[in-house]
Amino acid sequence: MSEPSSDLATHGRVLVVDDDAALAEMLSIVLRQEGFDSRTVARGDDALEAFRGYKPDVVLLDLMLPGRDGIDVCKEIRGESGVPIVMLTAKGDTVDVVVGLESGADDYVVKPFKPKELIARIRARVRRHDGPEVEQQESLTIGEVHIDVDGHVVTRGVEPIALTPLEFDLLVCLARKPWQVFTREMLLEQVWGYRHAADTRLVNVHVQRLRSKVERDAEHPEVVVTVRGVGYKAGRA
Amino acid sequence: MRPSLRRALTFWRRSIQARVVVSTLVLSTVVITAVGWYLLRQTRDGLLENRVDSVLAESATEVRDAEVALAGAGTESDESKQLRELAEPLITRGETRGYGVVLAGPVDDRRRAADGVASFTPGLDLDRSIPASLEARLATVGAPLAWTYTHVEADDSADIPSGPGIVVGAQIQLPADGRTYAVYFLYPLDEQEETLGLVTQGLLTAAVVLLLLVAGLAWLVTRQVVTPVRLARRVAERLAAGRLQERLRVTGEDDLARLATSFNQMASNLQRQIRQLEELSRVQRRFVSDVSHELRTPLTTVRMAGDVLHDARGRFDPGTARAAELLQTELDRFETLLADLLEISRFDAGAAVLDVEELDLGDIVRRVVESTRPLAEQRGVRVAVVDADRPCLAEGDPRRVERVVRNLLTNAIDHAEVGGRDPGVVVLLGSDENAAAVAVRDYGVGLEPGESAMVFNRFWRSDPARARTSGGTGLGLSIALEDTHLHGGWLQAWGRPRRGAQFRLTLPRHAGGSLRRSPLPLEPADAESRHADEVLR
């Protein structure tokens, strides 16, 4: 574990979980150049402890780790925090990506990635995570689901639903314009903040995850409705 | 043809059992008929021969008795009285024994028996019962005993029945007038006829029973053979459908059991080999995945280091700065090459999967044209898109289809003639109800004869000495072809030396559908030559 940079004027703190020492060090160098504070962990079983101690704004997580699998680490962190998790994967195969996303990651980059691409994604996640909130009372309703935008609280009836910030953003984005059908590309731009079309599988997996939390029956969704051949829209209020 | 008839014909074609049973039945019928006919003939001949022998003996005895009686009667001079005395006992005995007697004559009168009749068993139709040929043989005095078959005609008052019979003719000399008279004995064959009828009936019954037996046997025997064959067929079908654990049950040690054993052995071997192949494929995939991981992580580090150096090159001396630039561009190439190699090995391992959705080739083409614009501008080539009048819809994996189109387009831009005709590259779109197609035409160096098949080979280059501009890996078209095959589509090339080339991608309208023709011609309309080069499917 390396000591966090002493530079106080950071854009945010990044926890790097990767067993490859050279890559981890290189990541730290690039992150420091871009104004991020970082700490690296080489083992999967040390990751959770480091996470608790360091309280990062973003976690960069390799999938293949000694000690504990990246997928498990991802689930553990997701179990106690909604912090943005970006997976670093060496496998571009659909199955691996989907498994990673389903375990709770917000985004992924495939090795070998361009440093600028990685930084752009980290920035997008950090900005979303503690971006300025709208200073007005806003509450939205889709179907039986009620959203208190300021309080970051989603409820069905009286029962609260725990959503990650990304899932929350996705739901709010759909709920704010219930009349509009969002294509996957539109959602990538508005929720993830990606200008150029990244992988639309991101959207598919996150919609599935969101549905598993907010829908009564994920097989017959009523809150997030698929518009065949186009994209998604909010269900009727 | 009527459906019922067609069904019957299908059954006939498909069922060995039916064919064997029917052909056995036909052959047996022929044989049994021949044998039956021969038996009947033999029986009839035997019966008649017997009867003829006995009636001849009886007739001869009668005649002799009558002659003895006549001789013992002394010197009676009234010939009609003597005739009556001769006829009466004969007729009486005939009535009791069941035969008819006709006394006619005298023979030298040259009259028909019916006309010159002296006396006969009542009720007989003499003219039809006694054949003229027999009368002719008795017409001369001193003729021996003669017989023939006849048809006895009698009315209801007669004691003998009508029907086939034997007529025996003899001559008797009457002492009263010294002339010779003819005596005919008519023996009916009704008993023999009845016997023959019984035998015929017996034989027919036996034939029918035998035929049924033969048919039943044939059915049973073929069933014993056909049932295991049918079972084997069913198991083979299941094996073919991929249920490799299916086996035939082996009972006994006969030929069928051995067939089943061999079949099972074959299935086991197949299963083992398929398992091995699957295992190999799994190992290969595993290897690809490992290599991918192992290569990618250090490459990422190098990549990032290169980027850091590249960003800082302003502070380096010119030589080092150039080195940082070269490092950067070559890393790009290395990365593309690695990605392409991994993609190819994924195809080879059969690990490539399709994410099928409805897509419009037009959208993809416009997107790719947009993204390749920098390259086209750098080469000074304008790309024109000729749209179809309707959307080019197909079901496919958008990522892969886009990759194919991008490959074709960068390839075309790469090979287009610089400063040549405008536009230097034309993209054509076409669709019909079964397929969607995109063709990319360039007006560059074109292809030599035979090269249109080779362009899809890995690392193939038309001219090894040619400068590489877009930095293609040499795997682009191979990957494109694999991607196309994954969709069940066609990727074909046409080319003529110095007249350019055209690559055409055809995708079925629906995933899993089959292609019969492409909505676009492979040979471009502006091709000057008539015949297309070889076609790759």
UniProtKB/TrEMBL annotation, chain A:
Pfam families assigned to the protein according to its UniProt record, in alphabetical order: Response_reg (PF00072), Trans_reg_C (PF00486)
Q: Where is the Response regulatory domain?
A: 13-126
Please list the residue ranges the record marks as binding DNA: 137-236
Per UniProt, residues of the OmpR/PhoB-type domain are 137-236
SUPFAM superfamilies, per database record: C-terminal effector domain of the bipartite response regulators, CheY-like
PROSITE patterns associated with the record: OMPR_PHOB, RESPONSE_REGULATORY
List modified residues, type 4-aspartylphosphate. Answer: 62
Segment forming the signal sequence: none
What are the record keywords, sorted?
Answer: DNA-binding, Phosphoprotein, Transcription, Transcription regulation, Two-component regulatory system
Source organism's superkingdom? Answer: Bacteria
Could you tell me which InterPro entries the record lists for this protein? CheY-like_superfamily, MtrA_REC, MtrAB_MtrA, OmpR/PhoB-type_DNA-bd, Sig_transdc_resp-reg_C-effctor, Sig_transdc_resp-reg_receiver, WalR-like, WH-like_DNA-bd_sf
Q: What is this protein called?
A: DNA-binding response regulator MtrA
UniProtKB/TrEMBL annotation, chain B:
Give the main localization category. Answer: membrane
PROSITE patterns, sorted: HAMP, HIS_KIN
Histidine kinase domain residues are 290-511
Q: Which SUPFAM superfamilies match?
A: ATPase domain of HSP90 chaperone/DNA topoisomerase II/histidine kinase, HAMP domain-like, Homodimeric domain of signal transducing histidine kinase
Has UniProt tagged this entry with the keyword Transferase?
yes
EC code: 2.7.13.3
Q: Where in the cell is it found?
A: Cell membrane
Domain HAMP intervals: 223-275
Pfam families, per the entry: HAMP, HATPase_c, HisKA
- Residue stretches spanning the membrane: 20-40, 198-221
Q: Which spans does this entry mark as compositional bias, Basic and acidic residues?
A: 527-537
Which SMART domains has this protein been placed in? HAMP, HATPase_c, HisKA
Its UniProt entry gives the catalysed reaction(s) as: ATP + protein L-histidine = ADP + protein N-phospho-L-histidine
Instruction: Please list the GO terms describing molecular function.
Output: kinase activity
> Is Membrane included in the keywords of this UniProt record?
yes
Lineage, top-rank taxon, reads Bacteria
For this protein, the record's PANTHER family field holds: SENSOR HISTIDINE KINASE TRCS, SENSOR HISTIDINE KINASE YKOH
| Alphabetical list of NCBIfam families matching this protein | MtrAB_MtrB
Q: What is this protein called?
A: Sensor histidine kinase MtrB
